[in-house]
Automatic annotation (TrEMBL):
Its EC number is 1.8.4.12. It holds the Pfam family SelR. Residues 26-148 form the MsrB domain. This is peptide-methionine (R)-S-oxide reductase. InterPro entries: Met_Sox_Rdtase_MsrB (IPR028427), Met_Sox_Rdtase_MsrB_dom (IPR002579), Mss4-like_sf (IPR011057). The keyword Metal-binding applies. It catalyses: L-methionyl-[protein] + [thioredoxin]-disulfide + H2O = L-methionyl-(R)-S-oxide-[protein] + [thioredoxin]-dithiol. One of its GO terms (biological process) is protein repair. GO terms for molecular function: metal ion binding; peptide-methionine (R)-S-oxide reductase activity. Its cofactor is Zn(2+). Keywords: Metal-binding, Oxidoreductase, Zinc.
Length: 153
């Protein structure tokens, strides 16, 4: 289980190495992503709160990166945080997410990125439920939910 001290360590020193990397040019990303996905994933945008696909969805399944298909979160870690965006308590694996400091918008936050393709997912905060205390606040546009009964590739 990841805790806030782990997130800070990764952001400051080094993130876990992914098993593989996906690299594309920005033009290639534009060809495979919708305009809304591109704005969030590649331009670090934020979708409107409460008016997004997974804010109020709690069906069983696995959430993958909309850009590269990397498994990011399991629905068992999703909870209602009243933040306006899908919220999770833990990533699917220790190496699924890459963390970096984000000082944009006059705030100090920890940005959550896909560790495989470096796409922006959202942010992680230390105000989540126990035992881990983490709240991954993630844009729906950065996710694709696979039904629980589907096999992963």
């Amino acid at each position: 289980m990841l805790r806030w001290k782990d997130i800070l360590y990764y952001a400051k020193y080094s993130n876990p190495e992914p098993l593989h990397k996906v690299e594309k040019t920005e033009e290639e990303w534009r060809q495979v992503l919708t305009p809304a996905q591109y704005a969030v994933l590649r331009e670090k945008g934020t979708e409107p709160p409460y008016r997004n696909a997974y804010c109020r969805t709690y069906e069983p399944g696995t959430y993958t990166c909309a850009a590269c298909g990397q498994v990011l979160f399991n629905s068992t870690e999703k909870y209602h945080a009243i933040s306006g965006w899908p919220s999770f308590t833990q990533p699917a694996s220790r190496g699924a997410i890459r963390y970096t400091f984000d000082d944009s918008h006059h705030m100090q936050r920890i940005e959550a990125l896909c560790n495989v393709c470096d796409s922006h997912l959202g942010h992680v905060f230390n105000d989540g439920p126990q035992p881990g205390g983490l709240r991954y606040c993630i844009n729906s546009a950065s996710l694709i939910r696979l039904d629980a009964d589907l096999e992963l590739p």
